[in-house]
């Protein structure tokens, strides 16, 4: 008998066809209240789950006693109770690598947009307020040659370093769990303690995962170490930052600007003070959001899920402790 897979993300026709061939499929189209009720109804019979952007905690997982595998369509796995999944022997997989370059492109888009004030000034033109040649009031700051600071030198951090070093001639400094000699050799990057990086970087970029150790890593104390010309970029997770402290630093202009793809709460509240600051460029969590990359992520997740349900070890197994065969 075919295993039962519950999708809470719609996939392309070829991927849906692959899943239908291998499994009995229930598709939850959107995670609105109706969709969530459908999900709860489907969980008791589910052997596999595939989706993203849903907090899968013990309460939901307890509704799925037959569950064998969860395939996340994301590299970040902060939405999952990994210890509980492992305890239950449920295999969790993610989609690293295929989104690395695209997410680094997003990071660089935010670097350029904040430094050159692209959104603010484009809005000025659109509003019909470009009435004379611009002067210093509208100038931005250079990106090339400035110091790029990367916190979390993993896959995406390295792809950002590559762009900064080769594309923009930027000296790269980084903070991570430990120094990475290969990265230092390739990009001339230099390791720094977190306080040193915050003091020395012109662009402070977050590319680390949200974990118990990184939650609230950047708060008032850390913003105080940055200078008035520092530009802060977050393409990791909103909860790594104390958002109230960020707002304060931006309002008081103790830092210059922020480029933010992720927020403490998503979607961002329409009345967030961040949206009233013209030194903020806010994007709706678009790090990996291109047609090509989202399809590659979905394929990767389907590969992982079908392997797990066939009794094979998924390539991108996250909780290796759950693999008992
Ligand atoms: N904005 C978006 O749409 C996207 C956001 N992301 C986020 O980016 C994160 C990173 O992705 P990858 O580069 O693929 O992961 P990765 O695992 O390759 O890199 C993360 C790096 O952070 C370092 N790190 C972790 N905890 C640390 C700590 N406490 N102190 C210092 N360094 C620490 C690790 O050593 C590693 O080098 C994901 O977990 C996800 O949250 C990923 C893709 C898209
Ligand atoms: O993959 C992730 O972790 C994302 O945030 C979206 O691509």
Automatic annotation (TrEMBL):
Classification via Gene3D superfamilies: NAD(P)-binding Rossmann-like Domain
InterPro entries found in the cross-reference section: D-isomer_2-hydroxyacid_DH, D-isomer_2_OHA_DH_cat_dom, D-isomer_DH_CS1, D-isomer_DH_NAD-bd, NAD(P)-bd_dom_sf
Highest taxon of source: Bacteria
Domain D-isomer specific 2-hydroxyacid dehydrogenase NAD-binding residue range list: 108-287
Pfam families: 2-Hacid_dh, 2-Hacid_dh_C
Presence of the UniProt keyword Oxidoreductase in the record: yes
The D-isomer specific 2-hydroxyacid dehydrogenase catalytic domain, residue ranges: 5-319
Annotated keywords: NAD, Oxidoreductase
Alphabetized PANTHER family for the sequence: 2-HYDROXYACID DEHYDROGENASE-RELATED, GLYOXYLATE_HYDROXYPYRUVATE REDUCTASE B
Family: Belongs to the D-isomer specific 2-hydroxyacid dehydrogenase family.
Name of the molecule in the record: D-glycerate dehydrogenase
Organism this protein belongs to: Pseudomonas hygromyciniae
């Amino acid at each position: 008998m075919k295993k039962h897979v519950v999708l809470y993300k719609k996939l392309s026709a070829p991927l849906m066809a692959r899943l239908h061939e291998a499994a009995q499929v229930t598709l939850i189209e959107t995670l609105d209240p109706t969709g969530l009720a459908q999900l709860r109804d489907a969980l008791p019979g589910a052997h596999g789950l595939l989706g993203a952007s849903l907090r899968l905690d013990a309460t939901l997982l307890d509704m799925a006693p037959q569950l064998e595998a969860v395939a996340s369509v994301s590299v970040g796995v902060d939405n999952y109770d990994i210890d509980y999944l492992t305890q239950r022997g449920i295999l969790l997989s993610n989609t690293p690598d295929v989104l690395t370059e695209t997410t680094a492109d997003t990071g660089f888009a935010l670097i350029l947009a904040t430094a050159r004030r692209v959104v603010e000034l484009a809005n000025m033109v659109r509003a019909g307020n470009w009435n004379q040649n611009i002067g210093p009031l509208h100038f931005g700051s250079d990106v090339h040659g400035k110091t790029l600071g990367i916190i979390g030198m993993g896959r995406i951090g390295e792809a950002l370093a590559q762009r900064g070093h080769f594309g923009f001639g930027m000296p790269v400094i980084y903070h991570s769990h430990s120094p990475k000699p290969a990265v230092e050799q390739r990009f001339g990057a230099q390791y720094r303690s977190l306080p040193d990086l915050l003091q020395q970087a012109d662009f402070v970029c977050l590319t680390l995962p949200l974990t118990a150790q990184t939650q609230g890593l950047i708060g008032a104390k850390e913003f105080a170490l940055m200078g008035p010309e520092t530009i802060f970029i977050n393409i990791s997770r909103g909860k790594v930052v104390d958002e109230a402290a960020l707002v304060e630093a931006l309002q008081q202009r103790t830092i210059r600007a922020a480029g933010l793809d992720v927020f403490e709460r998503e979607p961002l509240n329409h009345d967030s003070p961040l949206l009233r600051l013209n030194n903020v460029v806010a994007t709706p969590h678009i790090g990996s959001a291109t047609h090509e990359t989202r399809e590659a992520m979905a394929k990767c997740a389907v590969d992982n899920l079908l392997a797990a349900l066939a009794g094979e070890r998924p390539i991108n197994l996250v909780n290796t402790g759950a693999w008992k065969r």
